[in-house]
Amino acid sequence: MARRPLIGYEHGFTNQASDILRVLNGEQPVVPLPDFADAYQTQRVLEASLLAAAERRWVNMDEVK
């Protein structure tokens, strides 16, 4: 099944729902679904940006656990 290019913001949700249904049906998603490890790394980046803004300096990712 070929995917059409995204037309608007709402199509991202439609494509994500399609991938979730594919996984629930035992198939592979077209786009890999994020997992806890992805969310953890995203949260680290957000924490580093808040720390950098508060301290007005660069923050290396190894400083954020």
Report on this structure.
- The protein has helices spanning 9-24, 36-55.
- The model has no long low-confidence stretch (mean pLDDT 88).
- It has one domain.
- By secondary structure, it is mainly alpha-helical.
- The radius of gyration is 17 Å and the shape is elongated.
- The termini are far apart.
- It contains 2 helices and no strands.
In short:
With 65 residues, the protein is mostly helical.
Give structural attributes:
single chain, 65 residues, mainly alpha, 2 helices
Write the layout of secondary structure elements.
Blueprint: H1 9-24, H2 36-55
The shape, in one word, is elongated
Distance between the termini: 40 Å
Relative strand content: under 5%
Number of helices: 2
Radius of gyration of CA atoms, rounded to a whole number = 17 Å
Count the E strands. 0
Number of domains: 1
Structural class call reads: mainly alpha
Largest sheet: none
Low-confidence stretches: none
Task: Report the helical percentage.
Answer: 55-70%
Average pLDDT, all residues? 88
What is the chain-wise order of helices and strands?
HH
